[in-house]
């Protein structure tokens, strides 16, 4: 009897191409904590591509159930309140992908990530993108796009920020930016030498690799 291999993780949705960049930032075989891991797409990708020892925290029961059904090590938890229970430097990488803007206390969460992980990877939608600015200026309404698909009253995002804002937060908490990559609306990386103010204008989302 032939057994079909498990499906490999693929991405056709440019709004989550950040996951591929995150995977490239993680050292093979590393211990990883994925906070807000959703249905486990990133954990599965990291296991397939980098052979990591991955753990996850997810707020929704549906997400936890999906992860456990795939054999992923995920528990239910809240990034705002439960990270304090993890010891210092417990993981090589602490990852927060497209989640920091949905937390109640982004600064507290980032400080906890920097305490728990030797390195931290954060991705988020950039509210400083030129199209967002244009829609606010000329339409007078909250913008919607691939990375910000919800209406203002339905969105889980409560602390939207720009790349410039996030860089300032990193300075405030004493985080060192090892790498920063901005992605345009088509999921392509902008030039690595591009200054932050240009990334802030043309990047629709961003991925940061941080350390103390």
What does this structure look like?
This protein has 212 residues and is α/β, with parallel strands linked by helices. It has a single domain, classed as Rossmann fold (3-Layer(aba) Sandwich), CATH 3.40.50.150. Helices cover 33% and strands 21% of the residues. The chain contains eight helices and seven strands; from the N terminus they run H-E-H-E-H-E-H-E-H-E-H-H-E-H-E. It has helices spanning 18-25, 41-50, 61-69, 79-82, 106-116, 130-138, 163-173, 196-202, and strands at 31-35, 53-58, 74-76, 91-97, 117-125, 176-183, 205-211. It has a seven-stranded mixed β-sheet, sandwiched between helices. Strand 4, helix 5 (106-116) and strand 5 form a beta-alpha-beta unit. The model is unreliable at 1-14 (pLDDT under 50).
Give the tags.
alpha/beta, Rossmann fold, seven-stranded mixed β-sheet, 8 helices, 33% helix, disordered N terminus
For this structure, what is the CATH class? Alpha Beta
In total, the number of domains comes to 1
The biggest beta sheet is recorded as: 7 strands, mixed
CATH architecture level-2 label: 3-Layer(aba) Sandwich
How much helix, percentage-wise, in residues?
25-40%
- Structural class, from helix and strand content? alpha/beta
Point out poorly predicted stretches: 1-14
Q: Indicate the mean pLDDT.
A: 90
Give me the number of helical elements. 8
In whole angstroms, how far apart are the ends? Answer: 52 Å
């Amino acid at each position: 009897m032939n057994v079909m291999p498990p499906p490999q993780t693929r991405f056709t949705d440019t709004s989550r191409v950040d996951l591929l960049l995150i995977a490239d930032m993680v050292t093979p075989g590393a211990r990883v904590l994925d906070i807000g891991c959703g249905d486990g797409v990133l954990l599965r990708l990291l296991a397939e591509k980098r052979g990591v020892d991955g753990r996850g925290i997810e707020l929704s029961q549906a997400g936890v159930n999906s992860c456990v059904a795939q054999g992923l090590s995920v528990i239910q938890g809240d990034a705002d309140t439960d990270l304090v229970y993890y010891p210092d430097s417990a993981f090589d990488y602490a990852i927060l992908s497209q989640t920091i803007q949905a937390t109640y206390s982004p600064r507290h969460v980032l400080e906890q990530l920097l305490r728990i992980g030797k390195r931290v990877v954060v991705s988020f939608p950039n509210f400083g993108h030129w199209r967002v600015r244009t829609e606010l200026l000329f339409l007078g309404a909250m913008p919607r796009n691939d990375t910000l698909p919800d209406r203002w009253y339905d969105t889980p995002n409560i602390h939207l920020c720009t790349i410039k804002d996030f860089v300032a937060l990193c300075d405030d908490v004493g985080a060192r930016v090892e790498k920063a990559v901005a992605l345009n609306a088509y999921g392509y990386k902008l030039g690595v030498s591009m200054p932050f103010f240009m990334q802030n204008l043309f990047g629709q989302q961003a991925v940061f690799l941080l350390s103390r």
